[in-house]
Amino acid sequence: MREGYLVRRCLLLAVVVWVAVTINFFLPRIGGQDPVRDRLVQQAMQAGYLQQGLDQMIEEYQRQFGLDKPLWQQYLTYLGDMSRLDFKYSIANYPKTVVQMMAESLPWTIGLLSVTTLLAFSIGTLTGAILGWPRAPRFIANVLLPPLLTLAAIPYYLLGLILLWIFAFQVSWFPIFGGYTPGTVPDMGPAFWLDVIHHAILPSLSIILASIGFWALGMRAMMITTQGEDFVTFAEASGLKNGTIFFNYALRNALLPQITSLGLALGHILSGAVLVEVVFAYPGIGSVLFRSIRAFDYFAIQGIVFAVIVSIALATLILDIIYPLLDPRISYRGS
Known about the structure:
Elements: H1 3-26, H2 35-46, H3 54-65, H4 71-83, H5 98-132, H6 138-153, H7 156-170, H8 190-226, H9 230-237, H10 242-267, H11 274-279, H12 285-294, H13 298-326
Helix pairs in contact: 1-13, 2-3, 5-8, 5-10, 5-13, 6-8, 7-8, 8-10, 9-10, 10-13, 12-13
């Protein structure tokens, strides 16, 4: 790989991140909402009356959060804060910082999404490879293809609602919401982890079932395209075993686009399956982002979306760097 290509790719990464974080700054402010006023008025209304000196309190908090400054000055401050990974305090959960909120919720999302993404990729890719292999028994395709097409067309949050209604409301096999039983003190004991796994089964199933169809159909299409390739024809003419041709020639070459999609999917892990987490009230980063958007919590939105932007950008860069290692036919030496 030429150094020039790597430098240009890193510069492009910096430009993409800058454009994304700029949109991230201006987009929440387009609605013209005042999150400080909304939050203080909401708290005053919960007490049954409007506090005296509310306007002065709002002005003081706006100064504390820097929202009293001109927009261009807020933007420059924002860029400086993002470069130092300083996401400030949450407006809706003051005095908790955005970093604290992310530190509490990210392990739940990373644990849930990493496991479900890898499981869905493995099961879906292998299933799709079998469906696209002409020597596989045809009854397998007749049995598996219709449900895979159906699952690929159902949004994961809608599938989550269906699973919730059947297994939580009707038969009561799984809990309705949360990451663990309310009132439980989190610890490292096996009882607590079994409780966490029990709560994560339905969210995991909704993501895995909805994703298997996507991975399987994509892999099936790639397996079909490899059937006419010279290396497969040569392997068949050499008298190699069917399993050897399937794994070492067809599957290995058809897997490359799937690896690209897997890398991008792993880059999206930080964003979480927002709607799935909302449906199951799962304590992940998606739920935090959803509540922050509803509360116009500028700093929480900015911090979470910035982490998502950087994770996706880095995943794309890493894929560009390692792709020649996966496919020897690709080279950046001429770039």
